[in-house]
Design goal:
Blueprint (H helix, E strand, L loop, with lengths): L3 H6 L1 H13 L4 H13 L8 H16 L5 H8 L3 H5 L2 H7 L8
Helix pairs in contact: 2-3, 2-4, 3-4, 4-5, 4-7
Length: 102
Amino acid sequence: MYRASDEVENEEWLRDLRRAAESLELSSEARSNATDLFLSHVPEAERSKPAMAAAALYAGALIAGDERSQTRVAESMDVTRLSVQQRWKEILRDAGFSPPTW
């Protein structure tokens, strides 16, 4: 869970997340999921926030059934695919979901 102040403190990253979601043409459910997941997993280090936002975006889209490739999500957030790949499963597990095993 996150505090309301987390939204204010991370407005820059939420703006980037919304911009990326728009460019990926994600559903409103995927966008909402991604926002909640990011705010529930905001890292302390500023340099880690773009990667976490990208992973939250990828995981939020999976939950909504609005899948996009890790590469497309990473490019939309200007991070590496590896950044997404290393974080998304943990985010899903912490949210109570089982990551797919494809």
